Amino acid sequence: MTPANSIESPVYQGQFGEFSITPSDRQSVIIYRSGLMVAALSFAIATVLLFWQGTTPPILTSLSVLYACFCLALGVSLLTIHIYLKVLHRFLQVCWAIGAVTALIVIFTRPEPFVVTVYHEAIALVGIGFTFVALTGIYFKEAFCFNRLETKLLTPLVPLLILGHLSGLLTPSIEQNLLAVLAILFLVFAGRKAGQDIPSDIGDKSVFAYLKEQEKTQP
Fold first, then answer.
1. Neighbouring C-beta atoms of residue 53, cutoff 10 Å
2. Per DSSP, what are the bridge partners of residue 13?
3. pTM higher than 0.70 for the full model?
4. Which parts of the chain are coiled coil (predicted)?
C-alpha cells in the first residue's frame, strides 16, 4: 500500500481504488493496540503472581480480576480489529463471547475460585478455551499479515498448552514453562504493535469497500 499523492494528501492507492485514512480509522487502531497491551499486561502479571506466590487465596482472587481485565481488553480489540473477511471477524467475536459467558457461569455457579475450577474441570476449560481461540485468531491474522516471529510462535503455542493440559500429555513443569513463554511472547507482540505505523494496521480500505458492495449485490 503506497501513497497515491504527496505526504500532504493522505490518499492511498488500493487494489480496488483510492482511499484515505480518517481520524476514526486511526482511533480504532489505537484502541485495538491498547486492548492488546492491557490483555498482555494482565496475562503477564497473572503469570508472575502465580509463579511468585503460588495459589494462595489472595493470589487466586487477583488472578480472577486479572483474567477479567484480560478478557474485557481482548473483547475491545476484537471490536476494533481490521479484518477483510467479515465472517472471520464475526467468528472470532462469537468465540470470545462464548468464552466470556462461560467465565461468568463458572464464577457464579462454582464454589471454588475461578482459576482452580478452570484448571481442574475439563468442561470449564473447554468453554474458556473459546476466548483463547479468538486470541489465537488474532495471532494468526498478525502472523499472516506482518510475518512476525512472535506471532508465528504464539499461534500454535496457545492450542498446544490448552489441548496438552486437557489430554494430560503435558507435565505441570512443561505447562509452567509454556505459560511463561506465552506471557513473554504476548508482551513482545503487544509492545511491537505499539510502535508499528498505523496505516499498516488499517490495511487496504478499498478491499473493505469492494467486499461491502459485493454483499449488497448478492441475492
1. 12
2. 2, 18
3. yes
4. none
